[in-house]
Amino acid sequence: MGMQIAFWALALIIIAGALSVVLLRNVFRAGLALIVSLIGIAGIFITLSADFLAIVQVLIYVGGISVLVLLSILLTRNLPQGSPANKMRLPAFLVAALFLGVVIYSIINTSFPISSSAPLEPTTANIGLLLIDQNGWVFPLEIAGVLLLAAILGAVVMAREK
Amino acid sequence: MEIGLNHYLILSAVLFAIGLYGALSKKNLITILMCIEIMLNAVNISMVAFSRYIVPALLTGQIFAIFIIIVAAAEAAVGLAILISVYRNRQTVQSDKIDLMKW
Predict the structure, then answer these.
(1) In this predicted complex, what is the ipTM?
(2) What mean pLDDT comes out for the span A97-113?
(3) What pLDDT score does A79 carry?
(4) Is A145 helix (H, G, I), strand (E, B) or coil?
């Protein structure tokens, strides 16, 4: 019962936040709504017993990316224009609605092989072992480090005053 | 009704559709980037839901989600740096005004 209340409340928060990002004209308020939505997603991870990912979500999305987004909004703010829709608003809506319909149709008509065993908890130690394990994800992990280094250097070069 | 895999997948699909609509229909580059973040998060929800309900002991979906978060962080840093650079050169972040390379 508690699970259901948590899921529906979090789903409501997430959808409301995402809709505000799309519908609000004030870009700064849209950024704040994005933060609400991201915190809700961290809660959804907790209901899926992914405790490590929930903390990562809060640290990286709520603590890092949102701050970056809000900072760029403040640096490039032109309030009178806000965030208007372009000419393709109706086709975009139709594409999104069509996508949603197709995906929900295929979700409902697929029978997934749901396992009844209990989830692993806590997950942090196992994720760490999997990431470092030779037969696991150590190569992607190293590539991710290189990617982050390249991204940081690229961002510094791009945003620097000439 | 018990909360199952389908609930999470449909939540993820709805979130992805909202992000898709925003990314296709908005003019402001920052809003487009925020919508892309929403879409990445929607994918993360479905990854973790599959991991929880189909292979609860393997954590594969959670590892995928961690890599998605890494790539999203890199994407946000580079994207916003490009955006600030564009704003410095052209004093606008509206996608229809950035038409230097438009034929």
Answers:
(1) 0.91
(2) 93
(3) 58
(4) helix
